[in-house]
Amino acid sequence: MPVKTKKPNSYSERIQQTIRRIPYGKVATYGQIAALAGNHRGARQVVRILHACSRKEKLPWHRVVNARGAVSLRPGCGYEEQYYLLSREGIAFNPKGLIDLKRFLWQPEVADWDWPGF
Question: Taking the domain 11-104, which CATH number applies?
């Protein structure tokens, strides 16, 4: 089912709207968010936006992980909170702290996107 959202005006807004689309019980990677928002090389900008806007914009920041399926935050700096929030959504971690991306990675339907290039 298509997600109806206001058409974003900037790359930053597209990143935020993309993060909002990640469903409960799924994760996305920084690079995946960047690519879906229109810049496949913008993973670091995704990190900056999450750092600056997560709480203020009420983004589901905890659903964004690194390309290995790991929480990138350090222990004592948000790792425990992200691990807890993901676990609460039913996302499982292996003994090495990795998420099975084949099982939990969000795979959006391209037809559901209303942005240029999709």
Answer: 1.10.10.10
